[in-house]
Specification:
A four-stranded mixed β-sheet has the order 2-1-3-4, with helices on one face. It has a single domain, classed as Glutaredoxin (3-Layer(aba) Sandwich). By secondary structure, the protein is an alpha+beta fold. The N and C termini lie far apart (about 30 Å). About 35% of the residues lie in helices and about 25% in strands.
């Protein structure tokens, strides 16, 4: 079974969406992330982490607000932002990290 550390340690970019099921802005992020997946394809892996189910992981990364998006490569945090983010802003944030 693949662990969170396995995933964020990949050589490709991994966008992590820390969310909660009760969070309205988190629900609004879902279609944005789907569109982003269509744009970047396999260049960026997108995963969702429910802060209520995986509280230890959320605490380890100091998640205090949802949604919080974090971009990883090889276990390193490259970018982080809390709150609703538009597709255009996400693309602008991620593009410089594409190899």
């Amino acid at each position: 079974m693949e662990t969170f550390n396995d995933v964020i340690s990949e050589d490709r970019l991994v966008l992590v969406d820390f969310f909660a099921t009760w969070c309205q802005p988190c629900k609004m992020m879902h279609p944005v992330l789907e569109q982003l997946k269509g744009t970047f394809g396999d260049k960026v892996r997108i995963i969702k982490v429910d802060v209520d189910k995986y509280g230890q992981t959320a605490a380890r990364y100091g998640i205090q607000a949802v949604p919080t998006l974090m971009l990883f490569r090889k276990g390193q945090i490259l970018w982080r932002q809390s709150g609703m983010v538009s597709k255009a802003d996400l693309q602008t944030a991620i593009t410089p990290f594409l190899q």
